[in-house]
Amino acid sequence: MTAQQIGLKDRLWKELALKAELNTDGAAISREALAFIAPGVKTQEQVHTLFEMDFEIHDDELPAYFRLDHGLVVPFRWNPDARHRIVLDGNRTIVVKDDEQLAEAHFPARPAYYGQKTSDGAAMATIGSLGSDRQFFVAYSNECSYKDKGEDCLFCNINFTKDTYGEKSGIFWKTAKQIGETYAEVHRQGLVDHVNITGGVIPERRELEYYLDVADAIRKHSGVEDFNGTAVVAAPIDLRNLDRFREAGYRTVGLNLEFWDKGIYNAICPGKARDSGGWDHWLRAIEYSVGVFGHGNVRSNFVAGTEPKKSLLAGIQHLADKGAVGTASIWCPNPGSDLEGHRAPEPQWYLDLGHRIAAIWKKAGFTWANLYDSNASVDTLQHDIWRIEAETLPIFQRDAVAAE
After folding, report:
1. Residue 352 in contact with residue 385, Cβ under 8 Å?
2. Which end of the chain is more exposed for a tag (fewer CB within 10 A), N or C?
3. Quick check: pTM over 0.85?
4. Residues in domain Radical SAM core (predicted)?
5. What are the phi and psi torsion angles at 229 (to 5°)?
């Protein structure tokens, strides 16, 4: 490894530490900076179609994400009380903490299709949002059947988000045709390599039929046979239904177990614990899915920060041993959830977790294609760590060209 490569990695590790702080603590933004970047006009705005991930609800149009100086992507989580602030400095937006300038924040341009509509007049931006790495994210509904039973997951605010922002923010049931038309336009514009379809928990038969219809609509409107789709679903009671998702054209599947510790799972996810066969059946469904979709093509996410790290890592390791990719999202005590007002662990806790997960992935033999295809986003700390260690982030290529 050259001195230049060592220096770049050192800078990336520092940038990753800043990203961890911005993820766990959020960031405020000045009125001047917000007006300058003009989310929803010049730059890409948040789309509330699943969860409110900011620390407080808001009326302002806020940005979706930004890049730091070396390219690491930070999801924007608005926290008006955060020590980190994004301020305007001439024609640059700067991340500051206690008036110390830390980095420049680079906000992405608004995708062209965000200003377009489907044939029935729905704003395409509300049908599917665009991730930072060519990933098309569709939340078909905020309908979750656990609400009616009073059994929502305690960390989740999917129903609260719908009640708060409603249809004016694009929270409505998306039809298969709307998704197919929007995907076709995103594909025509050359913006997409992966599709993630998700939503609240709905009855099994209805979920299966809907996902089959969506796959048909994507192929019909785009002409793309292999659209590299991930179906994020509840564990079906009849595990053979997982074969049908594969037959419909989905390349990967996501079954989010949320917690490895059964006691915590039962307490925080009462609906999942009582329906869909409970924790043990969800695990069987994950293992069955590996046999259907193949090694590395099944994902299960954990809400990191509400159970001990040792337990969470035991779950990630178990899944890796079975050929499934375990991921961990940084817990945001979402407004409107039963855990609102709690705190996520310190940034260093998440950095250590990310290093340990990346090591498990490497030992399990997962490829970058596995980690990319099976996930809704590759903006996590563990994905960054993987790419820094493997020297595959775009900055490494640019740095190498500049050195020639």
Report:
1. no
2. C
3. yes
4. 152-288
5. -105, 145
Determine the Cα–Cα distance for residues 404 and 396; give it in Å rounded to an integer.
13
Averaged over 155-177, what is the pLDDT?
83
Q: Mean of the per-residue pLDDT values for the chain?
A: 92
What are 66's strand-pairing partners? 74
DSSP for 343-377 reads -PPPHHHHHHHHHHHHHHHHHHT--HHHHHHT-S-
The 84-89 sheet, strands edge to edge: 28-29, 84-89, 92-97, 100-104
* Rounded Cα distance, 164 and 335, in Å: 10
Condensed to tens digits (0 to 9), the pLDDT of residues 372-383 reads 998 999 999 999
Residue matched to tokens 């590299």:
228
User: Is residue 197 a contact partner of residue 143, using CB atoms and an 8 Å limit?
Assistant: no
Sign of CA dihedral 131, 293, 263, 203: positive
Cα distance between residue 16 and residue 20, in whole Å:
6
Question: For the chain, how long is the longest CA-to-CA vector?
Answer: 63
Asked whether the beta carbons of 48 and 170 are under 8 A apart, the reply is yes
Q: CB count, 10 Å around CB of 135?
A: 24
Q: Would you place residue 153 in the very low, low, confident or very high pLDDT band (cuts 50, 70, 90)?
A: confident
CATH 3.20.20.70 intervals, the chain: 112-395
Cα gap 195→183, rounded to integer Å? 9
Instruction: Report pLDDT digits (tens) over 197-218.
Output: 998 877 767 889 999 999 999 9
DSSP for 13-62 reads HHHHHHHHHHHHH-BEE-HHHHHHH-BTTTBPBP--SS---SSS--SS--
According to DSSP, the β-strands at 325-330 and 298-304 are: parallel
Amino acid at 183: Y
- As a whole number of angstroms, the distance between CA 85 and CA 256 comes to 33
Model confidence pLDDT, tens digit, residues 245-294: 999 999 999 999 999 999 999 999 988 888 778 899 999 999 999 999 99
Pairing of the two strands 325-330 and 194-198: unpaired
- What are the tens digits of pLDDT across the range 36-90? 999 999 999 999 878 888 999 998 999 999 999 999 999 999 999 999 999 999 9
